Amino acid sequence: MLAGALPLQATQAAPPRAAVPAPAAAPVPVAPTAATIPAVGAAATPVIARVDLPEGGRRYSVTLKQLGARIPMVLRGIEGSSAVPFAIRADEVVSSAKLTLKYAYSPALLADLSHINVMVNGEVAATVPVPKVAAGTNQEITVDLPPPLITQFNTLNIQLIGHYTMECEDPLHTSLWANISNRSVLEVTVSPLALVNDLSILPLPFFDRRDASQLRLPFIFNSAPDNGTLEAAGALSSWFGGLATYRGAKFPVSTTGEIPTKGNAVIVATGALQSAGIDVPAPNGPTVTIVPNPNDQFGKLLIVGGRDAKELKQAALAVVTGNKTLTGQRAVITQLLELEKRVPYDAPNWLRSDRPVKLGELATPETLNVTGFSPRPIAIDMRLPPDLFGWREKGVPLNLKYRYTPQPISTNSSLTVGLNDQFIKSIHLPSVARLGGGEGLLERLKSDSSIPVTDQMVIPLQIMNPRSQLQLQLRYQYDYIKQGECRDVIIDNVRGAIEPDSTIDISSFSHYIAMPNLGVFNDSGFPFTKMADLSQTAVVLPNNAGPAEFSAYLSVLGRFSESTGYPATAVTVARPDQAPTLADKDLLVIASGDNQPLLKQWAKQLPMSLDGPGRRFELSDLIYRTWNWLMPNPRAAVDQARNSVSFTTDGASVVLVGFESPLQAGRSVVAISSSRPEGLEEAVNAMIGGEEYPQTIQGSVAVIRDKQVDSLVADQTYAVGSLGLVGTVQWYMSRHPWLVVLLGILGIALLCVPIYLALRARARQRLGS
Fold first, then answer.
1. Exposure check for the chain: N or C terminus, fewer CB within 10 A?
2. How do residues 104-116 score in pLDDT, each as one tens digit?
3. What is the pTM of this model?
């Protein structure tokens, strides 16, 4: 992603990177012992004593579901276990932690031999007994997790040690089970750390990938920013938004230069900063500086400065494309090579559509290898370009190369292939006996315990929703052959691997989609993200735009980069009077109240009308046709309006509208309009989504009121993309079957007329006339 090296001039030596601990620390609770764990049945009483929060500290809770356990953990066998990861921010240290475990276990477990271990990073933090009296019922217990065991990246493992008899036992007997609810809660109390003032730690502390919560990073301007300053800020916010990924990111804006009372912030300004406890000299070029927040000893300020807007953008590009080379507290950018121009659909997060893609490009070798009789699924994340046109295509070819350990005798071992929890194919894994390789195969297995196999399949388009994140799931399941009483011992020596040179290929698909389509805008930022750097995008802000409009602009750009994985280094910011010069760009128009004149100028092209608090628009049946909506199908978008809907509101409702650009055919406009400035934040919240928003943004018009999203489809449609000459003719014919009949009649006529004339001439010749 780097366009070139960034020669830098450090104006201050970099201090050591070691973190400086806070002066005040909370008392560390004692690790749990048998005496501190309450008896089962009194589990609702917390074990850990409440401690006073340290100076600047905080306490937060997360459920196992939030940590990644989508369903309850089911532990089976004599040593069943399940794990979830959790992390601690780099600028915090754990003062205390506890786990409130909600669980149930089998009545067949022997209390003297069985128990449940709570483990942190492979070490036992607590052992929970399983007495007979409470077996088979829902239990709850709270245990301490010793802070010394907790690092920045951690694994919380729940392990069942289960036995049902004193004699010979089946290690996979059905009576050996425990269920751990994913509503179990991990509560952590942390103390802050003061990190060093060094640019080399970027993006810390402004974004920390260890923190799974939503990113909220204020942007500070000394006054209302001009277009160039906003372009620099947009590059920064999009970079942070791309890093935040699934967490979502919001960027509150201040135009008064006011520094937040707590936490981190980004300042984008020209000239010197010598107020509010900050003393930064005037820059002599594009400059990046990191300083402490004068209002918070643990907070930091990232100051992106320059003598004009052009230098501000150079400094911002240095941060988003070359932050790995920045060192010291302050760096002056002496040279920034021009970034390489992007091409359509080359977003790093999107599956390449110009060639087959190897699965090794999408996942690390570690994730492609598994061990055990029933190992974890191999999950490969991917994202499709949202305008893939699948008409008359059978599906997406997957050339799967894999290896496995064949068992001496088995009948049910298999490799299951799925996509987003939907079944695709089950591949049988033959045993040594069924492979029929004889002595040669046995000798080969002595040197390599696995055998390579190739399988070609097609992933049906019906389950490949181009608007969403896709996950290819491959799971090995080996048949466990019982040896008989007192002979069953699990030897976990089976392996499975997906070869990195397995390929998935979407290069045969055309890029063509019916628009407007707010679904692909919300999920992928399309059509703006067709160019990953947004070089064909212009954001039109009102002339009197304020913090609400600026914040919405920065947050939406962060949402775009979450899709592409690339910062908005070439976005254009404009005002309404500059619209005639933007005919060659897709437009994102932001408005609040009646401060956007373009919406009035383009009223006839809008699929709805805005008249004060009133809203009125025409609807078609497209929204009720799930298949045509999920799969891009321009044919379905030409249906006539079903009826019209109108309503009035005096609240801060938000409307998202998509329509074809009045400036140039084939270009798109998406307008985000709120009746009040504060309503624009609701639009950002709805785009980020979550459990609070059961409905998603889609259609031609989306109305957002509180947490309610109503998506509607207008009858105005247009197409974006190309099918090629042959594909265009075929598609046009499929939409106009009467034309096929007409052309058939015309073809027959053209064929019959010469034949008729030739026969008439021959008849005259034969008759001598």
1. C
2. 999 999 999 999 9
3. 0.82
